[in-house]
Amino acid sequence: MTVTRDTLIDFIYDEARMLDEGNYTDWLNLWLPDGHYWMPLDYKQSDPINQTSLMYEDMFMLKLRVERLNGARTFSQKPKSRCHHVLQRPFVDEMEETRFVTTTFMHYVETRLDEQQLLAITARHDLALVDGALRIANKRVDIVNCDAAFRNIQLLP
Amino acid sequence: MGTYTDNPAALAALVEPHQVHRDIYTSQEVYLQEMKHLFANAWIFVGHESQTPNKGDYFSTQIGNQPVIQVRHSTGDIHVLLNRCPHKGTKIVIDRQGNTGKFFRCPYHAWSFKTDGCLLAIPLKKGYQDTGLEKTQSGNGMKAVGDVRNYRGFIFARLAEEGISFEDYFGESLTSLDNMVDRSPAGRLEVVGPPLRYLHHCNWKMLVENQTDTCHPMVAHESSAGTAVKLYEELGLPEDAPKPAAMEIIAPFMSAYEFFEDMGIRTWPNGHGHTGVSHSIHSDYSEIPGYLEAMTESYGAEKAKAILADNRHNTVYFPNIMIKGPIQQLRVFIPLAADKTIVESYIYRLVDAPDELTARTAMYNRMINAPTSIVGHDDLEMYERAQEGLMVDGLEWVNIQRLIEEDEDFETEAIENGTTERQMRNQFHAWVKFMTIAMDEKEAAE
């Protein structure tokens, strides 16, 4: 497959749609096995390991997170949360033969019961072309007001 | 003035040996009394000295609902000042931390103060000549808290001018803080990054009680810890293969009741106490290469082993912090209103210890205590359901009688079965004591 800017942009849109529709099986399949979903706690944080982040999750944690959402005794998901992404057109920042980097500004809405929160986020995707398919190598999600006190963020921005 | 304001009998009547009245969680009047009395008379955690390492460094925070500034004075001592210009009331600093140089300068009218609070200068001061400014509250600089203590790097303050001493207030409970600091080969901790900040729509005491509630993890956290165990089993990895990080951190929450019963709970006077006397969910963490060697070099083999063998779980320092010695975490339960609490979760680096320990600590913090944590989500759900459920009229008491004994004496240290609610009773005993201590003295004087 030939990767064009449009391929990359479509990929980012498709991923957001999977998250909004709760299509987690397909979403997990987008990932390379050693990928990490990183959500920093600090503004412009550079170290995900030796300092607290909101999330820094390997595939085991992401599977656990997704599997838990449907559990019979997942009390914080009774009733379930819903989410909604609005994307600006992704910037394609780096484009090599099989490695790509995009940056996308989004508004993320998550809701449950009578509460709804809006997060302005910047998502950086490290993508890789492996066996003819685009995959997520790593994803970094920065929340603009990362230093604010948050209520539960239960789904995936 | 309502039912509870400055009324020691009414406040004390909210606590019975085996139950507490729901107003203790739901009444805004009780909350305001807590701010006025409990948070003024008790010793409250302010910050860590490493948050203000250099002269002029400040950190703004709060004691109860009182905005305060922790600041490193020119002598090197740390002072705690109320964050309010004595002139018009403007908060002197707004950012969470920074360096103010040799003095604070109010941004409104440029009154300036030394970093110990003393008045330094007022522009156009002749306007106050012969007006008696020095006899007013406004003429004496920024007001300091009643007393401050730096205990091994942790800054505590008492708002009240007079009251219980730091030593009498904490007593033997300081052994938990000692163990956390001693785990550094240099005997020193440093704060790492900003804290997680997590907003709960519930009373702050629900969170504090939860810290020694050993009958909830396997129930409330089944969806996270139980699912982790299930996913791990499905992987079918060989026994000696490295476990996913989540298994080390989250899976112990599914330990059986017997595990928690056997670990024990110790209570100390003035509302302090901890779970995990003999062992805890932190006991079986994997060894980090080089750490024991560094500890042995600093302390000798025997003492190093003793420090690392003491794996206390949660230590509550009444009224509103919890520390985890084995992973260098401190959580502050900040009361904003009767039904509103922010939890800030800090982590510290063990100076001269391998970085892998900091990595595990950071991992614990985000996996368990972040607003994005699958463990934290279910805790918040329980607290907020309780806050709403407590509005039910006709059932007005909250039970705390698990493993209660007759005539419990909270003024002496005790070790009990790890599923007792004695520590919750201990907290409420101290709650009544420090809520009413100044009122009782006032009554006695009258």
Describe the structure.
The complex is a heterodimer of chains A (157) and B (446). With 157 residues, chain A is an alpha+beta fold. Chain A has a single domain (5-143), classed as Nuclear Transport Factor 2, Chain: A (Roll), CATH 3.10.450.50. Chain A is 21% helix and 43% strand. Chain A contains three helices and seven strands, in the order ααββαβββββ. Chain A has helices spanning 5-20, 24-29, 59-69, and strands spanning 31-40, 53-57, 82-87, 91-95, 99-112, 115-130, 133-143. In chain A, strands 1, 2, 3, 4, 5, 6 and 7 form a seven-stranded mixed sheet that branches. Chain A starts with a helix and ends in a 14-residue tail after the last strand. By secondary structure, chain B is an alpha+beta fold. Chain B folds into two domains: 44-153, 3-layer Sandwich (Rieske Iron-sulfur Protein); 187-433, Naphthalene 1,2-dioxygenase Alpha Subunit, Chain A, domain 1. Chain B contains 15 helices and 22 strands. In chain B, strands 13, 14, 15, 16, 17, 18, 19, 20 and 22 form a nine-stranded antiparallel sheet that branches. In chain B, helix 11 (291-299) packs across helix 12 (301-309). The radius of gyration of chain B is 23 Å and the shape is globular. Chain B starts with 7 loop residues before the first helix and ends with a helix. The mean pLDDT of chain B is 96. Classes of the chains: A alpha+beta (157), B alpha+beta (446). The interface between A and B is large, with 34 and 46 residues.
